[in-house]
Specification:
The chain is built from 5 helices and 2 strands. The chain is mainly alpha-helical.
């Protein structure tokens, strides 16, 4: 029997992208937990738990349910009602808390790409609820970053792309 002290994670040597998904979601949950110490104007505690539920939901039993999507949808709407819409791109900067939230938003989009890759690679049941979950989560992290900067009286800096002309 192999010594488990020398095994950081039992699926590390798989060729499937499932392992990449699980590592990325573990990293997102851990960094969301870290961000909790710097984000002053939003509660991240339930999101950490939901991200960990999503972690095993690709390989094992689906733990993300419609009620979780409803929670995120309601949270999105609640935050949007607080700050109003943002009709332009903003630079990912500002307070320390907002900066962490922008990093979480970006990492969440990377997870969506891994899910898409798994959907393309694997002959397995697709899990569209995970696409919805992580897309909503990315948008929530963005809105939370706006709330954080607003709460710290930091003005957003608009970004105008030279590439896309918007």
């Amino acid at each position: 029997m192999k010594d488990t002290r020398a095994c950081a994670y039992s699926f590390l040597y798989e060729s499937s992208s499932l392992c990449d998904y699980e590592i990325a979601t573990d990293e997102l949950a851990s960094e969301t937990g870290l961000a909790m110490h710097y984000v002053k104007h939003s509660d991240l505690s339930r999101l950490v738990e939901l991200i960990y539920h999503a972690n095993g939901s690709m390989r094992a039993k689906m733990a993300i349910e419609e009620e979780d999507i409803n929670y995120l949808t309601n949270l999105y709407d609640e935050i949007l009602n607080k700050i109003g819409s943002c009709k332009y791109f903003v630079l990912p900067q500002g307070s320390l808390g907002a900066s962490y939230l922008h990093c979480l938003r970006s990492k969440t989009k990377a997870i969506i790409r891994i899910i898409h890759k798994i959907d393309q690679e694997e002959a397995r049941e697709k899990r569209p609820i995970l696409h919805d979950f992580f897309n909503l989560l990315s948008n929530i992290f963005f809105l939370m970053a706006l709330v954080e900067n607003k709460g710290e009286h930091i003005e957003e800096k608009q970004f105008t792309s030279k590439s896309y002309g918007c």
